[in-house]
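Justification of computing resources. Each target in the renewal requires a structure prediction run like the one illustrated here; the chain below, 124 residues long, is used simply to show the kind of job we budget for.
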Amino acid sequence: MALGYRYWTGIGTLDSCDRALSWYGSAAEQAMAKYLSGPPGGRSLPQTATRLSDLAGGIYGPGASVASTGLNTQRPAIKAGIARAAGETWEDVLEYYLVRYSLYRINHEHLLNRMHSSMQNAGK
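Resulting structure tokens:
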């Protein structure tokens, strides 16, 4: 991916959409091969154990339990409990991802436009 980007933008190399495409294709093939090499259905993230008390900050409450202090604060269940206690809802999370998607889409459209114009300029 990094070499594809460097060839596409011309960082340390000559601009070459063909070579960039070749590197992007190679990266995509490697990623897909790694994904398919796992169990049926592909690789997935490991499931984390969640206790109901973790969502409330642990048995003794937030900050008083081993579950909600120290390195345990980085566990997904504890983060979810803290977010829920702060008033975060699923609608907030969905809105965040929709905004991120729209920004990605805009950046992707800009990238495609730039590639198209550079290919047209190369043809002249």
